[in-house]
Amino acid sequence: MSGFPQDFLWGAASAAYQVEGGHDADGKGPSIWDVFSHLPGTTWQGTNGDIAVDHYHRFREDVALMAEMGMQSYRFSIAWPRLLPTGRGAVNEAGVQFYSDLIDALLEHNIEPMITLYHWDLPQALQDEGGWEARSTAEAFLEYAQLCYDRFGSRVKLWATFNETVVFIGHGYITGSHPPAVQDPARAVQACHHVFVAHALAVNAFRKSGIKGQIGFVNVLQPHTALTDKPEDVAAKDLADAIYTHWLYDPVLKGEYPAQLVAQTQALWGVPRYAPGDDALLKENICDFIGLNYYKRETVAANPDATGLKANHSGERNSGHQFGFKGLYKFVRNPQGVYTDWDWEIWPQGLTDGIMQVKARYGDIPIYITENGLGAKDPIIDGEVVDDARIDYLRMHIDAMESAIAQGADVRGYYPWSFIDLLSWLNGYQKQYGFVYVDHNDNLNRKRKKSFWWYQKVISSNGEQR
C-alpha cells in the first residue's frame, strides 16, 4: 500500500528564466539576469537564458510531455518583466497571454498549476531604482502580484510568493555571485526585510482577492549537522540553524524574526530598519503552506580562520572551497558523506529530519516539497539517456518523504527539480536535472530519459511503485 494520501500531488518544477528563452520577445523587458549573465565572467562559459530551452515557443510540446508522464501538477514561475516590462505601470498583454495560454494548456491535461511569483528575475528597471534595498520594490511587487491574481486567479489555486530568499539575497548581497553582485551583509539584511514586506503585502492582497486557493513561501530546507560534539562545533551548527532556517522561516510562518538574531543584526548594523506597521503586517499575513526545496545537508564546524567563498561551478569534484565566515561557522565536507560532482552531499535522511524539524517548530503547517533533485552529467548509452543515478536519488528521497508522512507531517505534494533539463544559473547546461533531455546540438529537441518512464510509474501508482 502507498503511504501517500489519495489527493497527494505528484508534479515537477521549473523557473521562467531557466526554461523560457524569448528574453526580449513580444515586449518583454530585461531582468537583472538578462543583464548580469552577459557580463564577462559571471556564468559558466558565458551561458545565458536568451534562448534557454525555448519553452516560450514550445510550451505546448512540453505540456504534452508532462501529460504523457502523468504529472498532476506543475510548479513554474512567472517572469515579472514579461508582464510589466519596467516592473510597474504599463501591462504587456502579450506576456499575460503567454501565461494564460500555458495555464489553459495545463488544465486541459488535468495538470494543476502552482505559480511562483518571484524566482529571482527582478525587472532591471527596478534594480536601477535600488532593487530589493528600496522599499518601493516591495510596493511594485504588490502591483505585480495583484495583476497576476486578477488575470490568473480564477484558474490557479496554488501560489507561492518567493523562491529561496537565502539564495537570491545571500548570493546577491553577501557572496556577490548573483546580481546585483554586492558583498555587504548589512545591505543583505535590509533587502531581505523588504522581501518579507513584499510577501506580506502580497498575502494580504491574495486574501482580499477572493481567490479560492492557498498562498505560501518557498524556502531552502538545509538541515545542519555539527562536525563533532565539541561545544564550538555545536555552537556553530546552532548559529547556522538560526541564519539559514529560523531567519527565513520565522517571518513567514510566525510573523516575526528570531529575537536573538535580530537583536544581533540591529546591534551590529542597525538593520533591518522597519517602517511603521511592519510588525503588524508580518504578524497578520503568515503563510497557508510552506514549500521546501531540499537538496543537501551541510556539516558545520567552528571557523576561527578566514574562509574562501568559491563554489563548485565546473562539475569537477572537490573544486570548490569551504564556505563560511571567520569567527562564526564554516561548511565542511562530511567524512562519511556521499557527494555529487558539484560537491553536494546526497543524504536522504535529511529530508525526513528537515520536515520533522519544520513541524516541531511551526506546528501542522501544510508542506509541499517544491524542489528536490540530482544535478548530474547524464550518460547517453546507445542513444538513451540512462540516468540511473537520478532514479536512485529520487527513490531514496520519496522514501524519506513517506517516512515523514508516517510520522505525522502534512506533506501534500512532490515537485522534483526539474521537469526538463534547463539552464543552471551559474553552471550552464552541463548540470542536468530533468526527466526530459534537451539536445542543444539538434534544434533543442526533447528526449525522454529513463527517469521519465520510471516517474510515470511512480505517479500512476501514487508512489507505491518505485
Automatic annotation (TrEMBL):
It is an enzyme of class 3 (hydrolase). The keyword Membrane does not apply. The keyword Amino-acid biosynthesis does not apply. Its EC number is 3.2.1.21. It catalyses: Hydrolysis of terminal, non-reducing beta-D-glucosyl residues with release of beta-D-glucose. It comes from the Bacteria. Pfam families: Glyco_hydro_1. The active site is at E371 (nucleophile). Belongs to the glycosyl hydrolase 1 family. This is Beta-glucosidase.
